[in-house]
Design a protein that fits this description.
CATH topology of the largest domain: Rossmann fold
Number of domains: 2
CATH superfamily of the largest domain: Alpha/Beta hydrolase fold, catalytic domain
Distance between the termini: 22 Å
CATH class of the largest domain: Alpha Beta
Number of strands: 6
Helix content: 25-40%
Largest sheet: 6 strands, parallel
Mean pLDDT: 92
Strand order of the largest sheet: 2-1-3-4-5-6
């Protein structure tokens, strides 16, 4: 058992040579690596080695430091994951660790954009929420509460803006860099706090997954804004017209009925998860094979 999931794998199994590339997956805020296991399996079947760190202070066991406090640390934790793989002789012997891929969703997508050269600041986060909190409320307050179109919305907005203004005034420019990372994929990313100029010339190959019915990170403020900044030097790996913020999660975590998480992560009614998610996972593998190169004739792991 890993969290709420019953998963199977060969612990301490024999290392097989794949295509020579490592992919690091960064999970979302308050989440876990295990919601990306189905994607990891596809990547392994296509010859990749996959590392899935659990981010300190921003995971399902310890959600004590979400938001900008975590965003500063996350790129460092990705680099430490690469270091850990490099420190394993059986794994390192099969890999080109100067040509690593990295992907993440939501806050993990923010991590991805940082590692593609994006620059952000706490003050830019504050400024976004000052201007757009009513239209992008969940991006500013997380899974704490929702606007419900009643008289409480005004006090909620006032309190949220007051807390954000007090906590996030620092205009220090933040970012991430690891020269080993050559290709990055950001899925439904938090992106409103990035300086668009910093992503006009990404430092890595950069792909995006955009879910058009995402109500957690409203695309026009986040993924679409990043796309407008980085085109034509980035690409949309897949656009999900009926997808919501949780479209990338597989297996889907259990969501408590009536909870904020259920509202923000549940699939919209017309989203065909059984058809779309396998296609998405396959396209992600294709993206990394193309942008990192095929280092061997490895046929993949049998299904």
């Amino acid at each position: 058992m890993q969290g709420p999931f019953r998963l199977s794998w060969a612990a301490n199994g024999h290392v097989l040579k794949g295509n020579g590339h490592l992919i690091v997956i960064s999970h979302g805020s308050g989440g876990s690596p295990w919601v990306h296991v189905d994607l990891a399996r596809v990547l392994v079947q296509r010859g990749f080695t996959v590392a899935m760190p659990q981010h300190e202070g921003d995971n399902y066991l310890d959600p004590s430091e979400p938001g900008p406090a975590s965003w500063i640390k996350r790129p460092i934790e990705v680099s430490r994951s690469i270091d850990a793989v490099a420190g394993s002789k059986p794994l390192a012997a099969t890999l080109r660790l100067d040509s690593v891929g990295m992907l993440g969703g939501s806050a993990g997508g923010h991590t991805a954009l940082s590692l593609a050269g994006g620059k952000w600041s706490k003050a830019r986060f504050r400024n976004h929420c000052e201007e757009h909190i009513r239209d992008d409320f969940s991006s500013c307050v997380g899974f704490f509460t929702l606007l419900k179109g009643n008289w409480l919305d005004g006090p909620k907005i006032w309190l949220a803006k007051s807390v954000i203004a007090a906590r996030f005034s620092d205009d220090t420019v933040q970012g991430g860099f690891d020269p080993r990372i050559r290709s990055v994929l950001a899925m439904v990313p938090f992106g409103a706090d990035f300086d668009p100029e910093s992503l006009k010339q990404p430092t890595t190959a950069l792909g995006l997954v955009i879910a058009e019915k995402d109500i957690n990170q409203v695309p026009r403020f986040h993924a679409e804004a990043i796309l407008a900044a980085c085109e034509p030097r980035c690409e949309v790996v897949m656009r999900l017209p009926e997808g919501g913020h949780g479209a990338m999660l597989s297996p889907m975590p259990p969501l408590e009925a009536g909870s904020v998480a259920q509202r923000l992560l549940s699939d919209p009614p017309d989203f065909d998860r059984g058809r779309v998610v396998p296609t998405l996972n396959s396209r992600i593998a294709d993206f990394f094979l193309r942008t990192l190169g095929r280092e061997s004739s490895h046929p993949g792991i049998p299904r």
